[in-house]
Amino acid sequence: MQAIHSYSVAPALPEKLLALQELSRNMWWCWCPEAIELFQRLDRKLWEQSQHNPVRMLGAIDQNTLRAVADDESFIAHLDRVREQLKDYLSRPTWYSHLPSHPEDARIAYFSAEYGIHESLPIYSGGLGMLAGDHIKSASDLGLPMVGVGLLYRQGYFRQYLNADGWQQELYPENDFYQLPFDLAQTPDGQPARVQVELPGRNVQLAVWVVHVGRVPVYMLDSNLPENRWEDRTITAQLYGGDEVMRIRQEIVLGIGGIRALRAVGIKPTVCHMNEGHSAFLALERIRLTMQEQQVGFADAREAIVAGNVFTTHTPVPAGNDRFGPQLMDDHFRQYYPQLSLSREAFLALGREKPDNDQEPFCMTVLALKLAAHRNGVSKLHGVVSRRMWQNVWPQLPQQEIPITSITNGVHIQSWISHETASLLDRYLGPKWSRQPEEAAVWRRMDQIPDTEMWRTHERRRERLVAFARRRLRAQLQRRGAPQTEVIQADEVLDPEALTIGFARRFATYKRGTLLFRDMQRLAAILSHPKRPVQIIFAGKSHPRDGGGKDLIRQIIHHAREEPFRRRVVFLEDYDVNVARYLVQGVDVWLNTPRRPLEASGTSGMKASANGALNVSTLDGWWCEGYQPEAGWAIGRGEEYTDHDDQDEVESHALYDLLEKEIIPLFYERGSDGLPRGWIAKMKAALKSHGSYFNTSRMVREYAERCYLPAAMRTRELQADHLARAGALAQWRSHLEEHWANIHIDDVRFGNGDAMKVGDQLDVEVDLELGPVPPEHVAVELFEGPLDASGHIREGRAVPMQPTGSNGTNGEFTFVGRIPCQTSGLRGCGLRVLPNHPDLGDAPLPGLILWAS
Q1: pLDDT bucket at 7, cuts 50 / 70 / 90
Q2: What element of type H or E holds 511?
Q3: Which helix (H) or strand (E) holds 221?
Q4: Which domains occur in the chain, in start order?
Q5: Interatomic CA distance for residues 260 and 255, integer angstroms
Q6: Smallest Cα–Cα separation from 620: which of 645, 594, 642?
Q7: CB atoms < 10 A from the CB of 356, how many?
Q8: For 223, 248, 484, 829, which has the most beta carbons within 10 A of its beta carbon?
Q9: Closest CA relative to residue 217, chosen from 144, 318, 316, 297
Q10: Percentage of residues in the chain with pLDDT exceeding 90?
Q11: What is the pTM (predicted TM-score) of this model?
């Protein structure tokens, strides 16, 4: 029945407990162990039933319990202590506040389609969201002036359950925003913030909610409003749900609506960080607003805005990047083209690798690459892969010079480390490991931890993981309607003392979740060894439309029902942050088997390592940087295969060999005191090696130093004095584009011949005809390096040339350069002319590169 009146009901808390409500509405509590313990003290059973959601728990808790707690001096002291911790956290000086120079008015807006902040906020699906949540938490820890922007999904990502055959099924329960720590955002004058975006034939109204994550407010847009059409109310219903029409509308809401939402609450960001291409339309909206407010053209506004955009790509395969056909773009942007003073063709060219190809779809990643001054992949290998993938955007550049760098991902260690391990580190490493985890000297103290304490702490976490897995398995068997005998047997699966391997992630076929089952007989011998047993816990979801990924899950379920795997292989349904936390904190080995180079980064292995688990992985993503023989194991040597079946055969046998010859013997090799000292040494080595680098504190500092601060300062310079420098840069670019075709390389002269010795220098002169282009507007470079078998320069480097003066009245100039011969071998050099301007940044302009033939 339709309600005729709506109203909200708030918890009725005794005055002494009002601080609980304050604490529950700032997600800082979720990485503060003492705050979590405080909520658990109220009612442990209700804490579990409420999915660790303090807002929901406070609304459901019995009033008699609250009155009793209010009279408990111990609880009140605990509450006061946690409240003071939050107050101190929010007010104390931070890394950012101690920077010697930073723009006082800088404001960084971080846009992401999903946020994995905590399991009680189900608005995430996987690694991208987990990274976004951890990024926001570390930005808060470091004191960056950041806000987040996302979509508030009414149903979020799906909940997973398996049918009797092991086939994944999806449920989409509704999120009650009033039982979550969200508040309706307000405008500066105290009114509820509302914005709208234009869709074909109508405007869609959007509510703006806000959740506080420490110091960082995250604003979420919601289209589920009565004044909207039903189809528009569903835009923010599901994360990654629907077809490409739904996807483009979600991305319009996120990018364009997100910028408008920030304006509505009084925030004008200096820098916008696009976490993947979903939010790339924000760059266009920022340009449109600048054109409108400054009364300038598209070119001037573009220069002013691009300088303040940062883009991170996460997807190493072309199919994972959103592309929309020209007709779909016309349907949604026909009215937007003229607002930017762009023709249809010029607008669509912004999202095309080949701007003149009328049939090429509009790619969000290409749009972000073109309209951001800073671009990066999420590991060193992914940077290489990204430069190869997007070379067509800068077709005249060598692959190594494609302007996409890399900033390797990390994890927010405080959110993922177990309370027991955190206490151990506090005792022996001091408080810096949590407040300044990027300090390498802190982690070098790992050797001070006694082996006995290290191992007992880890064993307790494994025991808790086994108990959790049994409870979870029993519950999922009951839901599935399994026979009672099978349900009872759930209490007998797994051994709390056996070597435990974890494999948990999105079930995509390239991640090869069933690689371990390639040789069933060999695996059976490994798992069922009478003296050295091994067990494996699987978890993970497949995308609802990924039949291949679903079939991998089904295969594992079938194997887990067979002897001798029944007690040694478990699949836990509905993988979420809570399940992930138990796994990374409790397993001995974290297994990762992607096909190189398809894993952009992967962060679950970092979380496991922070808890003392050892990684076994193919050399892909972060493990290319993290692998050291004393800190884990590598499957293969980083080979890339064209035959997938051959690859699976080779790498599965390599994995079996590692297990049989190295991993299992090391785990079960015990001294007279029962300790596996070789294994413990490897655990400590992993923490020493990984702790200081693979964390989001280091990562966010790197973003700040390499991207945010330079972007903020350059934006301020370009936008000063009514965009004076931006206008000059746009005028320079226009003049250069107009006359670029008139530039000619007339003659190149090599002064020393072609037989050189180490220590010699090769002198080069070139005569250029620049026409009306001044010589200071171009950079003339020699590009030299060793030659491969086909005569191409590999691993080349640029050597600048200098003008010596004019040779005539028609823009003729001579440039000279000198190449030092530092190593022997067959080498070659090319010569090129590029645009040169102090405000251009580090990205060459596509199409404006001239090479000597």
Answers
A1: low
A2: none
A3: strand 216-222
A4: 15-91 (no CATH), 108-156+184-409+704-720 (3.40.50.2000), 413-694 (3.40.50.2000), 743-851 (2.60.40)
A5: 9
A6: 594
A7: 8
A8: 223
A9: 144
A10: 86
A11: 0.96
Q: State the average pLDDT over residues 115-125.
A: 94
- Residue pair 363/370 in contact by the 8 Å Cβ criterion: no
Residue 498 tokens, joined: 């056996």
Catalogue the long-range contacts made by 203-210 (C-beta closer than 8 Å, 24 or more residues apart).
Answer: 204/228, 204/232, 204/235, 204/253, 206/253, 206/257, 206/261, 208/184, 208/261, 208/264, 208/265, 209/152, 209/177, 209/182, 209/183, 209/184, 209/185, 210/182, 210/183, 210/184, 210/185, 210/265
Q: Angle formed by the axes of helices 696-703 and 127-142, to 10°? A: 80
705 φ/ψ angles, rounded to the nearest 5 degrees: -75, -35
Q: What is residue 811's predicted lDDT score, i.e. its pLDDT?
A: 85
Q: What is the pLDDT of residues 348-399, one digit of tens each?
A: 999 999 999 999 999 999 999 999 999 999 999 999 999 999 999 999 999 9
Task: Name the phi and psi angles at 361, rounded to 5.
Answer: -70, 165
| CA pair distance 244, 567, nearest whole angstrom | 43
What's the whole-number mean pLDDT along residues 711-719?
94
Q: What are phi and psi of 223, to 5 degrees?
A: -95, 0
Token digits for 728? 């000059």
Asked whether 93 and 111 are in contact (CB, 8 A), the reply is no
Burial grade of 407 (CB within 10 A; 0-12, 13-18, 19 or more)? buried
Question: Which tokens go with 230?
Answer: 């039903």
Instruction: Report how far Cα 718 is from the mean position of its chain's Cα atoms.
Output: 29
Looking at residue 116, its pLDDT comes to 96
Match 């919601």 to its residue by tokens: 222
Smallest Cα–Cα separation from 374: which of 410, 411, 406, 408? 406
Q: Among candidates 259, 104, 277, 280, which has minimal Cα distance to 712?
A: 104
Q: CA 1 to CA 638: how far, in whole Å? A: 60
Would the CA dihedral through 112, 117, 122, 128 be positive or negative? Answer: positive
3-state SS string for 384-400? HHHHHHCHHHCCCCCHH
Examine the pLDDT at 3 and tell me if it is beyond 70: no
d(CA 608, CA 589): 8
The sheet carrying 778-786 orders its strands as 797-800, 778-786, 827-835, 850-851
- Contact of 392 with 354, CB cutoff 8 Å: yes
Tokens (6 digits) for 11: 């918890």
Is the pLDDT at 2 greater than 70? The verdict is no
- How many CB atoms lie under 10 A from the CB of residue 217? 19
Which tokens belong to 834?
């590029």
Longest dimension (CA), the chain: 96
Strand locations in 400-509 (E): 405-406, 499-504
